[in-house]
C-alpha cells in the first residue's frame, strides 16, 4: 500500500517536475506567451486548462474500451471541445472582466497540444485512477509554469503582484515585459534556469557513478 | 512486431458511427447543461458590467434605463418583461443596424442627469470602444470610460489616467439651431494647441489613441444627439 502511494506521488510529481509540460516538454506555448501578462490571468488560464485536461482525460479513460482506434482522434477532439465550451461558460459566469482579459485563448485551449497529447499517450491506455493522477500532475505543472511566467512579467512590467502595487508610485514600469516580446524574454530565462539545473544534476550523477 | 503478423481487426463502420454518435450526444448534453446552468449568472454579470460602466461616466446617476433611438427619431425603451420591450425589439429590428442604443442615467429623485453612449474608433492596435456621457442640461460631453482597448500599456492606456487629458472634459457638444448636427465637430488637436471648448488636447506620444477618442465621440454624437435632443423632455423623468 505504501509503495503504491509513493508510486502515485511519483506519477503526480512527474508532471510538475521531470516532464513539466512548459519548461521540459515546451508544449502549449500559445497560451503561455499570450495571456501571462499578470499573475491572475496566468493562474486563471492554468485553472481553465486544468479543468479541461482533467475532465477530458477522465472521460477518455472511461470510454477507452469503447472508442474504435480509427476514430479516436476525432472522438478526443469532440470531448476536449465540449469541456472547453463548458469552461467558456463558467468563466463568463464567474467574471466578465477575466473573460475579456483571456479573450480568444479560452477557446484556443482546444488546440493545446498538451491535452490531446495526454489523451492519446496516457488516458487512452490507462484506467481511471492513474489517468486522473497523471492529468492532475500535468495540469499542476502547466499552471505552475504559467504562474512563474505571469508573476515575473507582472512584477517587472507593471510593478505589481496580483494587482497590488509593490514599489510605490515612483516605479517606472518595464513596459516591454507585459508586451508580447516580454513573454519570450521571460520564457527564455526560465528555460535557461531549468536547463542549467538539469545539467548540474546530470553532472552530479555522472560524478557519483564514477566514484562508485 | 507480432502485430504485423496478425493484421489488426478492422472496426465496422456501424460501430464507428455508433460510438461517435453516442459520444456526440453525451457531449451535447454536457454543453446544454453548462449553458443552462450558467445562463442566469452570465446575464446578471453582463447587466452589472453595463451598470458599472454607466455609473462611472455619470457619477450622479443612481439608476439607468436602456433606450434605442431609430434613424427616424423614435426613442423606444428596452426592458425585460413589458410591452414596450416587444415594441422596442420590433422597432430596433425594423430599423436595422442603424438603431443606436443608449443609456439614460437618473438620480435618486428620478431626474435625468446624463446620457451614456458607446462610441468606437480605430486606435493604434485595435478598435477602441468607449462609453461617454452627454450632459443634457449643459449640452456637453462630461466624460468617458474605456469599454475595451488593446492599446499599448503605459502609452495608449494613459487616456484614462492622464490628468491633463481628462481636463479636456467637459467638451462642448451644442447642436446647430435646426438640431440636425453638432454646431462644432469634436476634434483632437496636437498637444498644447487646444483653443476651443470642443477640441481635445492630445497626449504627447499617444496621439493616435487620443485621436481615436475624439473620433469615437464625434461619430457617435453626430449620429445620436440629433435623434435624442428633440425628445429630451420625454426622457426627463424616469419612466
Walk me through what this model shows:
The complex is a heterodimer of chains A (212) and B (239). Chain A has 212 residues and is mainly alpha-helical. Chain A contains 8 helices and 2 strands; from the N terminus they run αααααααββα. Chain A has one domain (2-211). The longest helix of chain A has 32 residues, at 180-211. Chain B starts with a helix and ends with a helix. Chain B has one domain (58-235).
Number of strands of chain B: 9
Oligomer: heterodimer
- Rounded to an integer in angstroms, the radius of gyration calculated over CA atoms of chain A is 19 Å
Low-confidence stretches of chain A: none
Instruction: Summarize the amount of helix of chain A as a percent range.
Output: over 70%
Low-confidence stretches of chain B: 80-96
Class based on secondary structure composition and strand pairing of chain A: mainly alpha
H/E element string of chain A?
HHHHHHHEEH
Strand content of chain B: 15-25%
Structural class of chain B: alpha+beta
Number of domains of chain A: 1
**Basic shape of chain B:** extended
| Nearest-integer average pLDDT of chain B | 82
Number of strands of chain A: 2
Biggest β-sheet of chain A, characterized?
2 strands, antiparallel
Cα end-to-end separation of chain B: 81 Å
User: What coarse outline of chain A follows from CA principal-axis ratios?
Assistant: flat
Helix content bin of chain B: 25-40%
Quick structural overview:
The complex is a heterodimer of chains A (about 210) and B (about 240). With about 210 residues, chain A is an all-alpha fold.
Please describe the structure with a list of short key phrases separated by commas or semicolons.
heterodimer; A: 212 residues; mainly alpha; 2 strands; flat; B: 239 residues; alpha+beta; two-stranded parallel ribbon
Write the layout of secondary structure elements.
The complex is a heterodimer of chains A (212) and B (239).
Chain A: H1 2-16, H2 29-34, H3 39-62, H4 72-94, H5 96-102, H6 113-123, H7 128-158, E1 160-161, E2 164-165, H8 180-211
Helix pairs in contact in A: 1-7, 3-4, 3-6, 3-7, 4-6, 7-8
Chain B: H1 2-5, H2 13-57, E1 63-69, E2 75-78, H3 83-94, E3 100-106, E4 112-122, E5 127-135, E6 140-148, H4 163-166, E7 171-172, E8 187-189, E9 199-201, H5 207-228, H6 232-235
Parallel strand pairs in B: 8-9
Antiparallel strand pairs in B: 1-2, 1-3, 3-4, 4-5, 5-6, 6-7
Amino acid at each position: 500500500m505504501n509503495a503504491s502511494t509513493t508510486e502515485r506521488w511519483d506519477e503526480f510529481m512527474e508532471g510538475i517536475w521531470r516532464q513539466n509540460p512548459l519548461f521540459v516538454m515546451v508544449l502549449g506555448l500559445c497560451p503561455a506567451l499570450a495571456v501571462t501578462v499578470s499573475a491572475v490571468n496566468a493562474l486563471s488560464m492554468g485553472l481553465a486548462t486544468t479543468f479541461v485536461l482533467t475532465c477530458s482525460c477522465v472521460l477518455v479513460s472511461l470510454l477507452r474500451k469503447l472508442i474504435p482506434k480509427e476514430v479516436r482522434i476525432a472522438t478526443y477532439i469532440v470531448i476536449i471541445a465540449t469541456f472547453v465550451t463548458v469552461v467558456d461558460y463558467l468563466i463568463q459566469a464567474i467574471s466578465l472582466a477575466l473573460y475579456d482579459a483571456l479573450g480568444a485563448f479560452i477557446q484556443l485551449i482546444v488546440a493545446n497540444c498538451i491535452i490531446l497529447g495526454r489523451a492519446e499517450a496516457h488516458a487512452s491506455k490507462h484506467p481511471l485512477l492513474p489517468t486522473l493522477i497523471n492529468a492532475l500532475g500535468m495540469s499542476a505543472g502547466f499552471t505552475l509554469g504559467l504562474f512563474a511566467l505571469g508573476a515575473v512579467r507582472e512584477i517587472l512590467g507593471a510593478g505589481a503582484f496580483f494587482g497590488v502595487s509593490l514599489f510605490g508610485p515612483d516605479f517606472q514600469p518595464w513596459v516591454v515585459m507585459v508586451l508580447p516580446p516580454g513573454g519570450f524574454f521571460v520564457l527564455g530565462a526560465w528555460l535557461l534556469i531549468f536547463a542549467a539545473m538539469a545539467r548540474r544534476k546530470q553532472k552530479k550523477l555522472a560524478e557519483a557513478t564514477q566514484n562508485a | 512486431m507480432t502485430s504485423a503478423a496478425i493484421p489488426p481487426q478492422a472496426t465496422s463502420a456501424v460501430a464507428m458511427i455508433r460510438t461517435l454518435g453516442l459520444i456526440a450526444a453525451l457531449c451535447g448534453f454536457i454543453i446544454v447543461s453548462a449553458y443552462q446552468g450558467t445562463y442566469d449568472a452570465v446575464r446578471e454579470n453582463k447587466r452589472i458590467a453595463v451598470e458599472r460602466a454607466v455609473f462611472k461616466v455619470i457619477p450622479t446617476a443612481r439608476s439607468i434605463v436602456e433606450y434605442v433611438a431609430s434613424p427616424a427619431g423614435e426613442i423606444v425603451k428596452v426592458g425585460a418583461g413589458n410591452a414596450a420591450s416587444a415594441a422596442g425589439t420590433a422597432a430596433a429590428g425594423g430599423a436595422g443596424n442603424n438603431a443606436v442604443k443608449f443609456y439614460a442615467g437618473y438620480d435618486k429623485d428620478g431626474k435625468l442627469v446624463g446620457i451614456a453612449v458607446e462610441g468606437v474608433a480605430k486606435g493604434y492596435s485595435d478598435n477602441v470602444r468607449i462609453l461617454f456621457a452627454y450632459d443634457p442640461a449643459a449640452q456637453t460631453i462630461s466624460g468617458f470610460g474605456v469599454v475595451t482597448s488593446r492599446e499599448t500599456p503605459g502609452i495608449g492606456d494613459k487616456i484614462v489616467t492622464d490628468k491633463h487629458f481628462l481636463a479636456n472634459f467637459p467638451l462642448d457638444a451644442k447642436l446647430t439651431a435646426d438640431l440636425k448636427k453638432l454646431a462644432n465637430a469634436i476634434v483632437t488637436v496636437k498637444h498644447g494647441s487646444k483653443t476651443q471648448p470642443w477640441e481635445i488636447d492630445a497626449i504627447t506620444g499617444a496621439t493616435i489613441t487620443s485621436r481615436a477618442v475624439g473620433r469615437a465621440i464625434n461619430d457617435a454624437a453626430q449620429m445620436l444627439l440629433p435623434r435624442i435632443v428633440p425628445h429630451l423632455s420625454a426622457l426627463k423623468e424616469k419612466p
